[in-house]
Write a structure and sequence with these properties.
Layout (H helix, E strand, L loop, with lengths): L2 E4 L12 H6 L10 E4 L8 E2 L5 H5 L5 E8 L6 E2 L3 H10 L20 E5 L4 E7 L2 H8 L6 H10 L4 H13 L4 H11 L8 H13 L5 H6 L1 E6 L4 E4 L5 E13 L5 E2 L9 H7 L16 E3 L8 E14 L4 E13 L5 E4 L4 E4 L5 E14 L11
Antiparallel strand pairs: 1-3, 1-16, 2-4, 4-10, 5-11, 6-9, 6-10, 7-8, 7-10, 12-13, 13-17, 14-15, 14-16, 14-17
Length: 379
């Protein structure tokens, strides 16, 4: 039996009052709308139209969490652990209160994720830029003491270790004078090839005055996604969403280690123990026409974007979801069951459904477990 699922937007401070509202064809909201969760995560299981929540249907065992995400302000710089790191960290913190703000591990799972742009422009920071490129950018900054010190830290040794040590220094609490110098120098800096990145980071600095994460952001790749384009964010990869509307899918976890742009707890030592400091651009995955199947190298989830004009049957491995993001979409099964899906809502199909029949004109995202990770307990 197909189920329509919805949820109330989460009102994180970085959310937008207009992006999700515009997608759904309603007036801007009075408070930020940051994320809409379509899943069975215990923090906010989706509502089933007609009564109840999705976790009562699935037993809380979905391996993925699907979201709409709308950022008007930058999110915190963050990194997620591998499954092994999460298991070890969760065990170490077993005696801590679940609500303790200094707790790093909320569960024993990893949290790889994929973001797909819906808005015309989705800005993000993803991964660390090669040191030589960052030094070239910093060469255009005035020679303030903190800028010189930052250059020296970056050039202090082998690339990966220099990046790790630089991040640790910036977040240690002892580098505030240097942080202030770099942020001051950023205001008027212009460097060939870095115009968009510097413009974005100046905006980040205005919204996070004096935050060491502004300087960490200067070490990261700045990425602009267009509709349908995506990036996959592996374990250990520093990242932050800057602005825009997107569809996000991730493993069902709430493990986040923060690295700046936040008033929340930052455990510098734990961050440094899991951050992957291998530099390089994170590949942008292109939209590929009527059906885009995104490259996801983990078994927790799979995601496809369907540009629909008519009727199309889509094989699924269930338990799956169909999230409508544009137009007028109807989701059905071979048995003849069918549901009209409003934009911003989703249909949940249980494990025994192996094909969805889509009809209408618009855009829909199909989420399901990845190969080899279909929990048999979900009926």
């Amino acid at each position: 039996m197909l189920l329509t699922i919805t949820n109330e937007p989460r009102d994180y401070a970085w959310g937008s009052t207009s992006l999700i509202a515009a997608l759904e064809g309603r007036r801007p909201s009075a408070s930020p709308e940051a994320e809409v969760w379509f899943g069975d995560h215990p923090s906010d299981p989706a509502d089933v139209v007609g009564g109840g929540t999705l976790d009562a249907v699935t037993g809380g065992s979905l391996p993925y969490l699907l979201k709409l995400l709308a950022a008007a302000d930058p999110l915190s710089i963050q990194v997620h652990p591998t499954r092994e790191q999460a298991q070890q960290g969760f065990a170490r913190e077993a005696g801590m209160d679940a609500a303790d703000p200094t707790r790093n591990y909320r569960d024993a799972n990893h949290k790889p994720e994929l973001i797909v742009a819906l808005s015309d422009r989705f800005e993000a920071l993803s991964g660390l830029r090669p040191v030589a490129d960052t030094l070239r950018m910093l060469s255009a900054f005035p020679d303030a003491a903190g800028v010189v010190e930052l250059r020296e830290h970056l050039a202090s040794g082998a690339e990966e270790e220099a990046l790790r040590a630089t991040i640790g220094w910036l977040l240690s609490g002892t580098a505030q004078d240097a942080v202030d110098d770099v942020i001051g120098a950023l205001a008027g800096a212009e460097a060939d090839g870095f115009t968009e990145a510097l413009t974005a980071i100046r905006t980040i600095a205005e919204r996070n005055p004096g935050d060491p994460g502004v300087v960490v952001a200067l070490l990261m790749n700045f990425v602009v996604l267009r509709p349908g384009e995506a990036v996959f964010l592996r374990a250990g990869l520093l990242h932050a969403y800057v602005s825009g509307l997107g569809v996000e899918i991730m493993a069902a976890s709430d493990n986040v280690l923060r690295g700046g742009l936040t008033p929340k707890h930052i455990d510098v030592d734990e961050l440094l123990s899991i951050v992957d400091t291998r530099p390089g651009e994170v590949p942008v995955q292109a939209a590929t026409g009527e059906i885009t199947a995104y490259g996801i190298p983990v078994p927790d989830f799979a995601l496809r974007r369907i540009q629909l004009d008519g009727e199309r049957s889509i094989a699924v491995s269930g338990p799956s979801m169909a999230l409508s993001t544009a137009g007028a979409i109807r989701v059905g099964t071979r048995s003849g069951e069918a549901i009209d899906v409003e934009v911003g809502s989703a249909v949940f199909a249980p494990i025994d459904v192996d094909e969805l029949v889509l009809s209408g004109v618009g855009e829909v995202f199909i989420a399901e477990p990845g190969a080899g990770d279909t929990p048999e307990s979900i009926q």
